[in-house]
Structures are given as structure tokens and as C-alpha cells.
Design a protein that fits this description.
Elements: H1 2-83, H2 98-151, H3 153-164, H4 183-186, H5 190-194, H6 215-239, H7 248-261, H8 263-298, H9 303-331, H10 333-343, H11 345-349, H12 367-378, H13 385-400, H14 422-431
Helix pairs in contact: 1-2, 1-7, 1-8, 2-7, 2-8, 8-9
Protein name: Transmembrane protein
Organism: Symbiodinium microadriaticum
Keywords: Membrane, Transmembrane, Transmembrane helix
């Protein structure tokens, strides 16, 4: 009996050791899978951020390029007023009165503005594009750093674990290669060489001249280390919330975005658009004043020429200004506020929290409505033995093959009887005998 008990105890101990070893192996490979999945998640987030940054850069660069092309065309039109040779008649050939001299000064001012406004537009556009390119390089540099950090996270964690570990060389004697030719490489544990979660794949090899450690001591040390590790991980995972900070920097990049990083772009781009519109208006007014003076000097007998031409252009300029002001301050004002609210990072984070919680409307007003809906959905009897007998008859009919008859469900409780709650109805149904075809049998 004693030998049999000792044999059983030894077998149980061996089984426990095998289970412990299998558990450690499963935990190691589970941690490896967790590390790989975490690394894949970081890389996917970085790829998403990179695609988002690329789309934003494409939109901004395309808008700036279009503005630069239009500004260049307007600048060429301003140069055309100077180099094409179309000017008002000279004072030696035509006697200008005081009113016409005022228009000559206005022509000179408008011709200068037709060159200045497109030039300013081009300069502001180039400055905004330069800032966008710098911000793009900054964001891409951050993405490359985070990508390298995500790829090298296992290696860095292993090195930090080695540096922070208080163990000496006696803690893992079999993990050092005792070859003298590779002394520098042999001082690095195989765990670091294979990754943070790599286990010791072989048995500990005893070093020459050193006494082997007793198995009980190794087992006790491993047990204490395992318990310390498990309780330490418990605090880390459940109190420090490390899983929520897995990709904190990447999420911040998504929340901020490139449009929030370019500060001068939001200030320079509207001014460049304004200068472009002013340059167009200056070019139209130059044409109006120039040809008005030219027609008035060269066609004095037909004053309707310069009057009609000047009147049409002035009406078009005034209508354009009114339309721009109406579009800016009336038609697009609400839309601009909506887009600005949606693109702000604070509104994205606080959008869900701002919704009122108490705005939900209850579906049922009382327990009787809940019970009636429950009975109607599952076709269960409401109360009374007659209904139960009807269900038994229907179950027997269904077993015999005849068409079952659905019993009529009473819509109102009986006179003088209190409506039962759901818990009471469930207790009655559970206490009912098990019947074939019964919904709760």
C-alpha cells in the first residue's frame, strides 16, 4: 500500500510538473502571438495614418497648384497691359479735361494693381506650399520613427528587461556559451537573441567547474518567479491600462492631422484667394478705363461706344462684388461653421460625450406590457389551468400529426386578480411538467 501510494504520488507530481511545463510553453507562445498581433496593429494604424496624411497632402497641394496656375495667368494679363502697346492717347494728340485726367490716374493705379495682386497671390501660394511640404516631411519623419519603434519594440523591450533585471550570471548558467572564442557574444542571453518571449529550448547545460543546482531549488525559484511575474502583470494590465495606450501617439497623429499642423496655411490661403479676386477686378477695371478713354479720344462723334462699353463693365464688376460678398457671408457661412466644427479634434473626442443620456424613450411603460409582449412573442400561456390544458391538447395534436390549434390569449387580466410579473410567470412555466412540443419543455 505504501509503495502504491508513493507511486501514485510520484505520478501525480510528474503530471503536475508536465502540466506546469506545458502551461509555461503555452503562455510563451501566446505571448509571442500577442506581440505579433500588437505589432501588426501598430503597423496597420501607421499605414492608416500615412494614407490619411497622403490624401490631405494631395488635396492641399492640388488646391495650391490650381491657385498658382490662375495667379500666373493673371500675372501674364497684367504684363500684357504694359508690353502690348495699347495705351490712352497722348496729351500732345488729345486735349484732356480735368475729369479725364482723373481717369488717367485711375488707369495707372489699376494697371499697377493688376500686376501687384497676382504677384502677391503667387508669393503667398508659394509660402503656403513650402509650409505644407515642411509639415509633410515632419509628419512622415514621425511616422518613420513610430514604424521603426513598432518593428523594434520586441528587441528594445528585451534589452530593457536585461538591463533592469537584478539577476546575476548564476541565475541562468546554461544560457551562456562557454566557448572562449565567442566570449563577447556569449555574454548575451539567448532570450535576448531570440526575442522577448522566446523560451529556453534546451536543458540547462552545466558549466565546467561549477556544481549543478538542485532541481528542488530550481523549481522553487521558478515558482517564486512565476508568481511574482503573474501578480506583477496583474497590476500592470488591470491598473495601468497599458492596452489603451498601445497606439497613443498614432491616435494623436490621426486626431491632429496635417490640416491642424499647418498653421500659416489657414491664414495665407484665404488672403491669396482675396488677392486673386482683386487682381481679376483690377484687370477688368483697367480694360474699362483704358478702352473708355481710347474710344472717347478716337471716336468723338459716337459717344455711345465708350458709354455702353464702360456701363456694361461697371455693372459686371459691381454685380461680381455683390455676389462674392453674399456668397462669403450668407450662402457659405453656415456650411463653413459646420465643416470647421467637424474637422476640429476636440469636437471629435467630445461628440459622443455631449449627447444626453436621458434622451432615450422607454419602450414599455409597465410590467404588464412587458409580460404581454413576452407572452405574445413566445406564445406562452398567461395564466390559468385552462390555458395549460389547451397547450397540452395542442402538443398532443402536433405529435399525432393533426394541425395544432393556437389557444386564444386573453388580452386583459381576470376580474379581481392581480397581474403577475415576469418572475412569477417564469416560475410557473418552469414548474410546469415537461411536455413534447411545449416551448419550455
Amino acid at each position: 500500500m505504501g509503495a502504491a501510494a508513493a507511486t501514485l504520488s510520484l505520478g501525480e507530481a510528474i503530471g503536475i510538473l508536465q502540466s506546469w511545463h506545458s502551461y509555461n510553453r503555452d503562455e510563451t507562445w501566446s505571448r509571442r502571438g500577442y506581440d505579433i498581433g500588437l505589432q501588426s496593429m501598430r503597423i496597420d494604424i501607421l499605414n492608416t495614418v500615412r494614407e490619411e496624411m497622403r490624401d490631405q497632402v494631395t488635396v492641399i497641394i492640388s488646391s495650391l497648384d490650381n491657385l498658382m496656375v490662375v495667379a500666373t495667368l493673371m500675372l501674364s494679363i497684367g504684363f500684357g497691359f504694359v508690353v502690348e502697346g495699347t495705351f490712352p492717347p497722348a496729351e500732345t494728340d488729345y486735349d484732356y479735361d480735368d475729369t479725364q485726367k482723373v481717369f488717367l490716374v485711375a488707369y495707372a493705379v489699376l494697371a499697377a494693381l493688376a500686376l501687384v495682386f497676382p504677384l502677391f497671390t503667387l508669393m503667398l501660394t508659394i509660402a503656403a506650399r513650402f509650409e505644407v511640404e515642411l509639415c509633410q516631411q515632419d509628419v512622415m519623419g514621425d511616422l518613420q520613427k513610430h514604424l521603426l519603434k513598432a518593428l523594434r519594440r520586441d528587441r528594445l523591450d528585451a534589452l530593457e528587461t536585461k538591463a533592469a533585471s537584478p539577476r546575476s550570471d548564476e541565475a541562468a548558467p546554461g544560457r551562456h556559451i562557454s566557448s572562449p572564442s565567442s566570449s563577447s557574444w556569449s555574454q548575451q542571453p539567448s532570450r535576448v537573441l531570440r526575442g522577448r518571449s522566446a523560451p529556453a529550448l534546451g536543458r540547462t547545460t552545466p558549466v565546467f567547474g561549477r556544481k549543478p543546482t538542485p532541481p528542488c531549488k530550481d523549481f522553487g525559484k521558478a515558482l517564486r518567479g512565476g508568481l511574482q511575474k503573474q501578480f506583477g502583470n496583474f497590476y500592470t494590465f488591470f491598473y495601468e491600462d497599458t492596452v489603451g495606450r498601445i497606439a497613443e501617439d498614432e491616435v494623436k497623429l490621426i486626431a491632429e492631422g496635417l490640416l491642424q499642423k499647418v498653421n500659416h496655411y489657414h491664414f495665407l490661403y484665404p488672403i491669396a484667394q482675396l488677392f486673386l479676386w482683386l487682381g481679376m477686378l483690377s484687370s477688368v477695371m483697367v480694360c474699362c478705363v483704358l478702352l473708355g478713354l481710347y474710344y472717347q479720344a478716337n471716336y468723338p462723334n459716337t459717344p455711345a461706344m465708350w458709354r455702353c462699353y464702360t456701363f456694361i463693365l461697371v455693372v459686371c464688376v459691381i454685380g461680381s462684388v455683390i455676389f462674392l460678398l453674399w456668397m462669403k457671408y450668407h450662402m457659405l457661412r453656415d456650411k463653413q461653421e459646420e465643416v470647421r466644427t467637424k474637422t476640429s479634434a476636440s469636437s471629435v473626442f467630445h461628440e459622443e460625450s455631449a449627447a444626453p443620456v436621458d434622451s432615450a424613450v422607454p419602450v414599455f411603460d409597465s410590467d404588464e406590457q412587458v409580460e404581454a409582449a413576452y407572452r405574445r412573442a413566445f406564445h406562452t400561456p398567461t395564466d390559468g389551468a385552462g390555458d395549460l390544458e389547451a397547450f397540452e391538447t395542442a402538443a398532443e395534436d402536433s405529435d399525432s400529426g393533426s394541425a395544432p390549434r393556437r389557444p386564444a390569449l386573453p388580452t386583459q387580466p381576470r376580474t379581481g386578480q392581480r397581474p403577475r410579473r415576469i418572475s412569477e410567470a417564469r416560475s410557473d412555466v418552469s414548474s410546469a411538467p415537461s411536455l413534447p412540443g411545449f416551448p419550455y419543455g
